[in-house]
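Protein 1 of 2
SEQ + STRUCT:
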Amino acid sequence: MLRVDIRHRFGKFDVEAAFEAPPGITALFGRSGAGKTSLITLLAGLARPDHGRIALDGDVLFDSTAGTFVPPERRRLGYVFQDARLFPHMTVRGNLCYGMKRVPRAERHQAERLQTLDDVVDLLDIAPLLDRRPGALSGGEKQRVAIGRALLASPRLLLMDEPLANLDAPRKNEILPYIERLRDRLGLPIVYVSHAMDEVIRLADTMVLLSDGRAVAAGTVEDIMSRLDLRPLTGRYEAGAVIAAVVDGQLPEDNLTRLAFAGQTMLVPRLDLADGATLRMRVRARDVSISLDRPRDISILNVLEGTVSAIEAGDGKAPQVDVLLDVGVPLIARITRRSARDLGLAPGR
């Protein structure tokens, strides 16, 4: 568990954050300039905070009151940058082994999450790449090697600073499953910087929302995305609910999959997953309509019963409002002001 409560000034820019990052992926999300990279620099020990405390698994890495500051080379961190930063004169094997050389032998033997070269090669499917040099690798392959090198440093914490930012869509889709493997298999706290909401929703367990250097909200992805008051920061266009669901059967004749959650079901395009598999489903607010009665003779397949929890009208200039619905889990509908007025929508309806 990583526990953070720090403040620091970079020139005229202040960073202030307090959050906890358990094993799994904690996403630092915000627009460009929100302070994501500045915060991860402080976590890595590349800059010393002005005030506060950072502790990892009970070990204090920084404490301004006690005067404690563990330098970055002693923090046992793995760091993956936007660009892979591989040594061009080394093979992939050489780059990976360089990560191992950075860890004292005693620490490698004592590491609870020891990763051997074979373990990492298997985890990231990079055996065919071992004898190549970085110049002969695709962008996605380079990032997989960079992740492997970070893991072979036997880290207690993995920091990933927008590792997919320089990749095109096909390369991103290539590497996302490997990051999911890290999350699911290693039991490491992973702090993942991103300004791409799709990445955060797919990968993260916990989300820290940054704005102007401040951590303004922290919690599960589902909780953060269901808060209407955070729309200006999560993105109005991105507004919608994130729902944890379970595969509840296949409809092969229709090429659909049935998902279950909170006593409700929803049909989605067929997923190649076994019954009982868990996943997250994202429902955009602009894709939800509201009816006071169960609709009939309609092509829409998914009809859920619920009640209005809140209505967010914003500054009154936009023609739409966002309606927070309780269908067993939070759901958001974006409809026109006129529709909300004509339907007489209000909390409890």
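Protein 2 of 2
SEQ + STRUCT:
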Amino acid sequence: MAALRIAVVIPVARQHSRLARCLQACANLTYEPRIICVVSDEPIDLPDDPHFINVVSGSHALTGPATKRDLARAQCADVDAYAYLDDDAYPPPQWLDEAARVLAETPQAAGVGGPGLEPDDQLFWERVSARALEAHAGSGPLRFRFVREAPRDCDDYPAFDLIVRKEWLDRAGGWATNWYGGEDSHLCARLARVGGLIRYDPRPYVFHYRRALWPNHAWQIWNIGRSRGCLVRVGDPLSRRLVFAAPAALIAAALGFLGAGVFLGTGGLAVAAAAALIYMTAAIAPQMEVRRWREALMMPFALFIHHGAYALGMAFGILTGTRTVRASIAERLPEGN
């Protein structure tokens, strides 16, 4: 059986040092046959390697990652699968070998997703963001996206490490959105609508840099929450699950306990103090078990920022309605592409 032809697609907003690490890691990939398609609005410096191509949009305004991924789909049409990678992530050499193995083992899957693990050279506030994402109290049942857990099928997966079969991407109509944040949920919702699930497996992992807690991580999570709220507003059934309402519930509970302490006198103050103690213990204790004491002390603050940003973004999305979705290049392709 012939090996799958895979195009690695990396949307790039600008040249930066972590992009250089991403590109060098892609140059070290062992899988064949592969194309590494770097999509940008202006030309990008690439390694001297025949596997690389730079697709340049020529846009005078910043285009979003979904638009760039659709440009790659048009440019690299003669492949079997697209392996999406963020420009602040980098894969180990065997990444595509493992992804191809999972695809072969699960022929019914629309694609494969692997965890984005923490690199070992992150800065302190990036590590704090990583702790929030990896914590049970931070990501709940979705933490498998950031740590190695058992394989499973899922209908929503982030695009920092997402491999999608071309036939399923065609069925979904490509990325077909200009969303910047949440565009992967937009795609996965349309894949699910045509029967496509993503197979999560810990083997095709990548290393993915987190953003510093404030303001970058908070802004990213707010934007993701906003997109989820827009999907709720337009009736996406996958977005109406309790897991997506949990951040708002946690923030509401925290504010409720605070209000009890202020307005209900001594009894309310005791309830609020007990709730605060439970929260602090739940936030700090897991990190102390692995001796991350500096990051552990930041966890109560980090989790409040993390969940608060998501809850506010989701509320904004629900209240304001769907984000503008312009026709992308995918919708202008000839029929059959």
